[in-house]
Amino acid sequence: MPMKSIFLVEINAPDCSRIIGIYESYESALGAWHAVRIAMIWDLEERLEYAPKLYPELSNEGLDQFVRDGYRKDIKRLLCEDPEKIENNWDETPYIEEYPLRP
Hints:
Layout: E1 5-12, E2 17-23, H1 26-49, H2 51-54, H3 60-78, E3 93-100
Antiparallel strand pairs: 1-2, 1-3
Helix pairs in contact: 1-3
């Protein structure tokens, strides 16, 4: 009999990891992973749009160099549609982890 597993969708961040959900199949976890990834992209796009209001102390050049470029890089990274190929750097990254269940 094949070993049964559960799949966790998590977000790895610099200071912690968060469990988003626990799923019985990889396909279900993959759907949740995509939803989380898309929500993260939307959030970054919103931050990119409102960057001057979020960081009023920075000049336009400073915004481009530090804030906007970082958001654009994160958006590009999150556009990867394969959880096994997504670049996992120090920023928040969604991932799927399989845990075999004991018989």
